[in-house]
Amino acid sequence: MIIRKELIIRRQQKKDAAPYWESFSFETEEVGATVATALTELVREHSIGWECSCLQKKCGACAMVINGVSRLACDTKLVDCKTDAIRLEPLKKFPVVRDLIVDRSAMMERLKELSVWLETDGGSSEKLVERKSEDVGEGKAGRLRLRKESESADEIAYEASKCLQCGLCLEICPNFAVGAAFSGMAAMSPMTRLIVSAPKEQRKQLARDYEKSVYAGCGKSLACREVCPAGINIDRLMSRSNAAAIWGRWN
Amino acid sequence: MSDSGNAPATNIIGAGLTGLSAALTLAGQGRKSRLISVQSSERAQSNLAEGGINAALNVSGEMDSVEEHFADTMRAGCYLADPIMVRQLTKAAPQIVQKLQRLGVPFAKEDGRILQRYFGGQKKKRTAFVKSSTGKALMAAMIDAVRQYEVAGLVERYSHHCFERLFIHEDRCLGAQCRDAYTEERKAFPGPVIVAAGGMNGMFFGHTTGTTANTGSVTANLFEQGVVLSNLEFIQYHPTTVSIPGKRLLISEAARGEGGRLMIMRDGRPCYFMEEKYGPDGNRMPRDVISREMALLSEDVFLDLRGLSQAIWERRLPDLRDEIQHYLGMDPAKEPVPVAPGIHYCMGGIRVDEGHRTNRSFLYAAGECACAYHGANRLGGNSLLGAIFGGRCAAESVMKDLAGASKGNGNARRIEASNSNENAGKTRFAQASDDENGMEFLNGAEEIMSLQIAAYSSLSCDEQSIEKKMEEALFSGLSILRNEERLTQAHQTILQLYNRKETLSDELRARLHLAEAMLLSALERKESRGAHTRMDYPETKDAFRAQTCAKWEAGRVGITFEKRAL
Q1: B237-342 in CATH: which number?
Q2: pTM, whole model, 2 decimals?
């Protein structure tokens, strides 16, 4: 079977240049070929700007808008695109650098503003556990409860660490705009990692930041749930973070 | 921290796990660094690492020890790795895993203790893991840890910046020339340089499990500038990969660590060929052994995961199952998965000493781009470890060397290839710096660099066909089973491409030189060892228990062998 597609790409030579549309035809016999496959081939002959790295939806580099939907190019099979013509546009919420490349640094800058890192005391991990055990009480029951909690915390931290910082959730979010207080799920995920591991001293500030930058601004449309290429269980992360940071149930 | 005020910032090329580790180490001592990378850390190849990280934590009741981790690493590497370096690495491993845990890495645990799994080439459970997404979990934690120092002003990120060339003056590295890929502006970054740019997977586009951003161009550019490379012929083929558009998809070794078996159909019945030949642990032989066995078979090979328990799938490998279902449209718990070897890792790279110093003073290399811990074949679980430890070591060497430079005792010890003659540079450096905190280094560097910023042409569109020919020639010559004829043929192809050099960009020309060095290294090693299987020289020879050194000199590639004290 030969797959034939027309790729209509929104081009823009540089930041302030006027955008225009250009069409390229592409055909392949590879059934699994994706938009990333097509772009890889096209750039062998045309100087089209796009970013790409892992080709297996584990890095988030190739995020763009494909036929009006925010997706990863490497996670969009050509055969699954119903139309013969596929429109490719850069993410609209970030400034265009060139063609399909946008500058997503605002997303990383926000994590700096929100102090997204774990305050560790430089002590051993055993110490960390000891400190937690004070919260849950002494004895065998306390230790058992602690173990269960730490295992569930690990599951949450794993889920949260899947975030690619690709920006697709921000693109589709009706509440997110670069520069506004609401930071979207691209901040919620890494913050949840902190919420389940942060030492007591860090919690107050963390809760304040979480409330201001995630909880207060989220309109619960949960469009992000549909587009996350890592398949993050956003409801699960958000429930856990809300419980801790908003309702004070840290354990 | 008192002595850090005037020291030059260290330039780290690459923001993967190695680069983050180096930046973190420097920042922990109050030292500044620039983290320079083509894309942000979230896009780095380190994120793709799956199965785990090795450390002799001895938590599985198997009496594991650092000594055994050392012995397994040396044996799997066929005794080509530097034992001093491997000893340092394996000794530091337990502490590194504990530190990662403190940074919030959610390692699998049982009764509150880290749980370890079996991995290839190791008899003890020694691999700590986060399901089958260990690299991603480590990166998330390390990116957070470095962020703290970004805010403190100790780490400055230069994402979307491409390394072009070093500034070198009399064998001394003065800094790096980089280009901002967003603005096309060229920048000179003075200061020591740590190369953490990843391996050379990109020399085999489409045949590897790595990222497309990992092109091998940094190593190629360094090679042209006289940096010595080692063991380029040792390329790891991972036994279990599958083809997806544009690349090979890795099926983690964890699948076999947790009980997966390699299988062929023979006379209509399943035959577990590795177990038949190597016994019950046959599926966990080192990667070079399994890939070679697979290359010698004529049948299609399957990875049989049907025997894995529900608990393993749910708790330890849910991500792997999802991935196989997504890309192959089959459930690995129910059907055997068709697999084939794919290029996964380069054991060779930039030649370094035990402090990760190269043959240029103030130039360091660590992570996959360096030839350090893995000898002729790397153990699964040692690459994440090598990345973190190597980055740390290189950073520590930078600090020592800057302190040494300020005292005027010039301790920038360098390794020498046997055909090099660089002692003059060493002496000169020892006498040159007499100021505090490497200030002399900085002043000299800025002055010289302003004169040296140079044009550099990247690979252009119309060169892509040449590049493709180069990649195919390399892939054909450096297949799992090699011989003189195929290697020579590949070398001839490279020479033909290279003879059109007047039209070539700087980047492609350097890559062709690197390709030539890889093929010549494989041609010169007339024995079989680890990942290098010469069908025409099947035996392992004592005379070749040495590292191949490739050096670009007077317009040609020179290959020598260097023995290390063993």
Answers
A1: 3.90.700.10
A2: 0.93
